[in-house]
Design a protein that fits this description.
heterodimer, A: 234 residues, 13 helices, B: 312 residues, alpha/beta, six-stranded mixed β-sheet
Chain lengths: 234, 312
């Protein structure tokens, strides 16, 4: 546990040493802010629904950019060797880096809390869906972080890691919109794999165990896969 | 202390390390010597648990690398080749992070960092970013990393490669200073370095051990078939030859010719490992010849190395 903390703290600080963190956060805020507020007054309803409906798509490109360096950079400069020969286990490394990415995602969402606060001033807002939306956003962010870390552990090239991670996350986001291509009996299973519907139901304020299980299993699978990749490289 | 048995490593179907058995004793400084691609780095990486062996075992004080690798990692300080560090961190931040991960207690952390900064000469660069450092300084930060918990075993992969002569001398000095109390395994392809710092040398070629002996024994064996160079003034070639033959008729004496000052040079070879210099001197003392030069050329470690590792 202590080692997970050490690694997570180091990786989290690393984000803010380089300009990457600031660029990613500002880009995220500009994109979400524009798409949300440009039509906010046209729809004339005091809720955050359309902000949250944007998140799966935006996250599937932003989060792989956050996670792409976690393993690729280490393998590229060779510090992976120094890391692995210190008394840390594979699980410590994977979970530590995952935690850093997830906390970073939370930091990225933090400024958007100003949206519901300012909306609450101009209209009557239901707090449930907003709370659910943020819980869902953290779960979704966690799932995509795990996928991004898995992609990063597969290659020493950060750009490849980004494209791979974004491709998987994007597929998870849109797969339940492609159900009409899938034969009937399989549709239910394939539909369950899509992250969008699970996220949407939490963002409505309904925290269902099925959705929780979905996000937690994506996280566990991603980290387990990372663990396997590290073992295989060893 | 370290027991390596039948260690083998394959990279897909390329055999990098082929069935190596070694025992490294406590307090020994062992040099792994070999041309590029001989498997030095692979062996060190397996010792540190970075690679898993394809077959064979490594035991460090009854801990097996396959099952207790975390325990072994705690006992070992490792400096990888060309010290790959986190470029964007400050030296101080980096070493503090290493101290945390390696489990140096909070109260002792500051003192340990001070000690290491004195030992490795880092006091002037603690506030610098690692990417600004020269190669030699990076290597020193890497050494500080390896020695963080004052480990029993230090494993150094080509600690002096790519450094200038002053930096090499410094790093060697540090290694010798620590080596008095520690077990050190290091790899190098610089022979004089191994000769100067190691107690024992293992020469590798194509993943196999081709020589494994103390440095003293390896260099002693080098005098077999050694050649004595002799230069004499005011001497006649024939007289010299007949006089030297009195010592041992088996001696092969080759005249190399004379120079302007009238000095004649000879090469004297013998098939035994006996040192004939004393006998030659005593014989020549009976005459009125003047010795300008007498030296014994040994096969250097370099020669042995070449003989053992050259193809065909």
């Amino acid at each position: 546990m202590r080692q997970i903390m050490n690694i997570a703290v180091k990786e989290f600080k690393d984000y803010f040493i380089s300009p990457i963190a600031y660029i990613v956060i500002s880009l995220f805020l500009v994109v979400t802010g524009w798409f949300f507020f440009s039509t906010f007054f046209i729809f004339d309803s005091a809720d955050m629904r359309r902000f949250f409906s944007l998140l799966p798509l935006i996250f599937s490109f932003v989060i792989p950019a956050v996670t792409m360096r976690l393993f690729s950079e280490e393998m590229n400069i060779g510090s992976y060797e120094t890391l692995l020969t210190m008394p840390v286990s594979f699980v410590d490394i994977a979970v530590g880096k995952f935690a850093a990415a997830l906390i970073f995602t939370a930091c990225m969402l933090l400024p958007t809390v100003s949206y519901p606060i300012s909306i609450a001033f101009v209209g009557d807002m239901d707090l449930g869906p907003v709370l659910g939306g943020y819980i869902g956003a953290i779960l979704l962010g966690g799932a995509y972080c795990a996928v991004g870390i898995l992609a990063s552990s597969l290659t020493r090239n950060q750009i490849v890691a980004f494209i791979l991670g974004a491709a998987i996350c994007f597929t998870l986001t849109i797969i339940d919109k492609l159900l009409f291509f899938v034969p009937g009996p399989l549709a239910g299973i394939v539909g369950f794999l899509g992250s969008d519907t699970h996220f949407a139901s939490i963002a409505k304020g309904v925290v269902d165990s099925r959705d929780l299980i979905y996000f937690v299993s994506v996280m566990v699978l991603g980290l387990f896969g990372t663990n396997l990749v590290m073992k295989e490289k060893n | 202390m370290i027991q390596v048995e039948n260690l083998t490593k394959y990279y897909s179907d390329f055999c990098a390390v082929d069935n190596i058995t070694l025992e490294i004793k406590k307090g020994e400084i062992l040099g792994l010597l070999g041309p590029n691609g001989a498997g030095k780095t692979t062996i060190l990486r397996m010792l540190t648990g970075f690679f898993k062996p394809t077959s064979g075992t490594i035991d460090v004080e009854q801990n097996s690398i396959l099952t207790d690798s975390l325990n072994i990692k705690k006992m070992i300080g490792y400096l990888p080749e060309s010290a790959p560090l986190y470029h964007n961190m400050l030296v101080y931040d980096y070493l503090e992070y290493v101290a945390k991960v390696k489990g140096v207690e909070k109260e002792k952390r500051m003192d340990r960092l001070r000690e290491l900064s004195d030992l490795c000469g880092l006091s002037g660069i603690m506030h610098k970013s690692i990417e600004e450092l020269s190669k030699g300084l990076k290597q020193r930060v890497g050494l500080a990393h390896a020695m963080m918990t004052d480990p029993e075993i230090l494993i150094l992969d080509e600690p002096t490669s790519g450094l200038d002569p002053n930096q090499i001398a410094e790093i060697r000095k540090i290694i010798r200073r620590i080596g008095r109390r520690k077990t050190i395994v290091f790899s190098t392809h610089i022979l004089s370095e191994a000769e100067a710092t190691c107690d024992r040398i293992v020469i590798l070629n194509r993943g196999r051990v081709v020589a494994d002996d103390t440095t003293a024994n390896l260099t002693k064996g080098a005098y077999r078939g050694a050649c004595i160079r002799l230069s004499l003034c005011s001497a006649e070639e024939k007289e010299v030859t007949s006089l030297l033959k009195e010592i041992d008729p088996e001696l092969k004496i080759v005249t190399l010719g004379s120079d302007d000052s009238g000095a004649v040079s000879f090469d004297i070879k013998s098939s035994s490992s006996k040192d004939f210099r004393k006998d030659i001197y005593l014989k020549i003392r009976e005459t009125d010849w003047i010795i300008l030069e007498m030296s014994r050329e040994s096969h250097t470690l370099e020669k042995i190395f070449q003989e053992l590792t050259m193809e065909n």
